[in-house]
Structures are given as structure tokens and as C-alpha cells.
What does this fold into?
Amino acid sequence: MRKSFTSGHALIFFFLAITPALAQNITGVPGSPSATTTITGEQLPAPPQKFGGKIGREATQSKPYWPARIVPPKGAPNVLLIITDDSGYGVPSTFGGVIPTPALDRIARNGLRYTNFHSTALCSPARAALITGRNHHSAGFGVVAEQQRAIPAMTASLPRIRLRSAGS
It folds into this structure.
């Protein structure tokens, strides 16, 4: 059976062909320290950029090539993410702790307080809570990934979740 090539196939090939070009939109001189690029954000961290220089046997035979600095696209939201290791509410001075955090204190005095976060004692569970926005146990990371177990909450894999509608 012979399959025909449709205009839908052409459209798919067109988008596949232009996607790398869109992802590598570099502003400035490629390879220079001042070159910048934006990314779609679909893959974080961004994949490494292709090296466009030359590595010779001697420094004089080599050509340096700086990867473009990643900058946010125009109109991107201004997001501040603060990650602290092995700490919780009792640590920063903002919430009565012993470690001085003057910038966080100033932000809190101006009315901005983030009070919905998950505190964990281990790196993998902390990252799972951060990425999913859920408690580390419900994200399947009750322990570090290297110590996964074949029991609920410790499989190091995100369980399937049934989302409820607002009315249920």
C-alpha cells in the first residue's frame, strides 16, 4: 500500500525545519562574550550550545567561541526563586529565625510573604517538591532517588493523580 504525501505532512516538516532556527536566535556576534539568545523554556536547563570555535594543538591554532548568554524573552514575567538547603521557617529572620535575611525582611515588610512551601531534609525530595509544587511524599520522593523503594511515596517516580474540579 502506497501512502501519499499530504499538505499536513508538509506543514509538519516545515515546523520541524524552522524549530532549531527559532531556538538558536542569537543577538550580537555569535561566539563573542556579548552574544545573547532566548530559549523557549520547554527544556530546562537549556541544552548545551554547539561549539563554533576551533581547538588546535596549540593555543595559537585555536579559536575561542563563547556560548550565547541566555536572556529572558521580552515580556517574560519577573520570577524570583529562592532555594535554601536544609532549612525551613525557623531559619530566616523574616519569620523569627536566627539567620539575618535583610532583603527578605524588607520584602516581607512591604507585604509580600510566601507561606506555601515544602521543607525537606534531603536534596531529591526538595527538588521533587519544587518541581511539582507538592509534598515530596506525594511526589514519590520520600527519600533521595538513589534509595528508592518499591513502596508508595518512595518509588522516585511521580504517581498518577486524579485532579478534582472546583465543584467536586
About this structure: Residues 1-23 have pLDDT under 50 and may be disordered. The helical segments are 7-23, 102-109, 123-132.
